[in-house]
Amino acid sequence: MNTKKLETAIVASGLTKREVAIKIGITPKTFYNKMKKGAFGTDEVINMVDLLNIKNPSEIFFCEISNL
Fold it and tell me: Does the structure show a pLDDT above 50 at 68?
């Protein structure tokens, strides 16, 4: 997960991380922990894509695996 791009999308939406957390149905503490780990559930990702109007979610929520 690209947390920098997610943070950029949050700022562009005019919402705070706390507001996003509440709107997707988790506590702000849980949101911050998931941001740190880079792991959100499918429902949370879908809700954020809709809420933040993310055009290309794969750039944020999926990373490329290279040099294996």
Answer: no
27: DSSP letter: -
Helix spans in 1-68 (H): 3-13, 17-24, 28-37, 42-51, 57-61
> What is the reported pTM?
0.86
pLDDT band at 65 (very low <50, low <70, confident <90, very high): low
Query: What gap in Å lies between CA 48 and CA 28, rounded to an integer?
Result: 14
Give the pLDDT score at 64: 58
Beta carbons of 21 and 31 less than 8 angstroms apart? yes
Q: Which single residue is written with the structure tokens 């959100």?
A: 40
d(CA 33, CA 67): 28
Report the alpha-carbon distance of residue 65 to residue 37 in Å, rounded.
17
